[in-house]
Specification:
Elements lengths: L14 E6 L3 H13 L3 E7 L3 H11 L3 E3 L2 H6 L5 E4 L7 H10 L3 E3 L7 H14 L3 E3 L7 H15 L25 E7 L19 H4 L1 H12 L3 E8 L4 E8 L4 E7 L9 E7 L2 E6 L3 E5 L7 E3 L2 E2 L11 H19 L9 E2 L3 H12 L9 H20 L3 E2 L7
Parallel strand pairs: 1-2, 1-4, 2-3, 4-5, 5-6, 7-10
Antiparallel strand pairs: 7-11, 8-9, 8-17, 9-10, 11-12, 12-13, 13-14, 15-16
Helix pairs in contact: 4-5, 5-11, 8-11
């Protein structure tokens, strides 16, 4: 069951994209998604590597390839730009797109320093171009449904008839009555990471920046409030925990480990407020409790399901059964990559299509520059908090 409204493509031809930075992420997500989309089209692949361009030409059949992003962006046939370079090379590409007045979809994090982050924010605001940060989980079907349910409950609560109210009318009033709280657990396996993750020149802040921003953004989005203060602990890049306090009193806690396993779901989101609960398990199952007139459980289709006859019940239990079958395939055939099958829809393809709707004025903003800045600020506050062993207020980061 999907509660979010799907956008239907109109008669307009697909919007032509140039993809700048055609490495692994682009090849696994953006390029094939553009090729399959009915609303967007792959026009140009741009990369400094001749080998990568040769591969992209053969695999994805772009109209053009280029090693010069200025040339690619200036091409009058290009209507939008997708940036999948490393974060250290995003500011100049965004600058070129802004100068050309062309919409930008930019992978997260949009910058690797606060100075670059605020420079990009100023550029995008001044140019007035549509901008979408690659926080793709905002477009995952499970999270779209879960947020719609949770925000409706928080803004217009409908108490469930069985809630135990011990004191009734004598219950003492509380300023924090109903305030939301959110918990996020991220289970990862660092054996799958590339070595550059531990190279301070390439990734000076490690996963606390390039991975955590996904989840700080989801917290901001669900809680619909301004983050105010962050406290964090980090035991090297493989284990971290942060607490975010919001101006309206909400709290979000995030735990991330790199010493986990892909044999178990990566992501768990738990939201509580006004006597209700919304739980999202690995973007494949949404459960609710204490909320009137909403389903208690919803399950979502999986991508690349090589074992459709296994785990037919769907949801968490179905995924675990499919994962066991995939891991057995990997062992028998000596190929660990076979363990990656039947994965949840994390919203990559839908994010690009929704951005086209935004550009054409037929859909809401997906994840604009200000939302991207807010998520990245929380990550940088967590980095500083872990380093300095103190709570850090968001306002400390901002230019004076």
């Amino acid at each position: 069951m999907n509660l979010h409204k799907e956008t239907r493509p109109e008669d307009a031809p697909p919007l032509r994209f140039a993809v700048v930075g055609c490495g692994m992420l682009a090849q696994s997500q953006h390029l094939p998604n553009l090729v399959r989309s009915r609303q967007a089209a792959l026009h140009t692949c741009c990369d400094l590597s001749p080998e990568i361009l040769a591969h992209c030409r053969q695999a994805f059949h772009p109209a053009k390839v280029s090693a010069d992003y200025h040339q690619a962006i200036a091409d009058p046939e290009i209507e939008a730009v997708c940036i999948a370079t490393t974060e250290k090379f995003r500011l100049p590409v965004i600058e070129a797109a802004a100068a050309a007045g062309k919409p930008v979809y930019c992978e997260k994090p949009v910058a690797r320093t606060l100075a670059e982050l605020y420079a990009i924010q100023r550029l995008v605001r001044a140019a007035g171009i549509p901008f979408c940060a690659g926080h793709n989980r905002r477009s995952a079907p499970a999270l779209l449904d879960a947020r719609k349910i949770f925000r409706a409950h928080m803004e217009q609560p409908r108490p469930c008839p069985w809630r135990f109210d011990r004191e009734g009318a004598a219950r003492p009033p509380r300023a924090d009555d109903g305030t939301a709280a959110m918990a996020v657990r991220v289970n990862d396996d660092w054996y799958s990471w590339k070595a550059w993750v531990f190279d301070a020149a390439q990734a000076p802040h490690g996963p606390m920046l390039f991975e955590m921003t996904h989840f700080t953004d989801i917290c901001n989005w669900f809680l619909a409030a301004e983050p105010e203060e962050v406290t964090a602990l980090e035991q090297g890049p493989l284990a971290s925990g942060i607490v975010v306090r919001y101006q309206t009193g909400e709290l979000a806690t995030l735990m991330m480990t790199g010493n986990g396993t892909f044999g178990y779901p990566k992501e768990l989101y738990e939201l509580f407020g006004r006597g209700g609960a919304v739980i999202i398990d690995h973007l494949l199952e949404v459960r609710t409790a204490g909320l009137a007139d909403v389903p208690a459980r919803m399950v979502y289709p999986l991508l690349n399901d090589r074992h459709p006859d296994v785990g037919a019940e769907g949801g968490l239990a179905g995924w675990l059964a499919k994962k066991q079958a995939a891991c057995q395939d990997a062992v028998e055939r000596g190929d660990p990559m076979l363990s990656f099958a039947a994965e949840p829809d994390k919203g990559h393809a839908r994010a690009l299509d929704r951005f086209v709707d935004e550009i054409r004025g037929r859909g809401p903003q997906v994840c604009g520059i200000d939302e991207a800045v807010a998520a990245t600020e929380v990550a940088f506050a967590a980095i500083r908090s872990a380093q300095e062993k103190r709570a850090v207020r968001i306002e400390e980061l901002r230019p004076r």
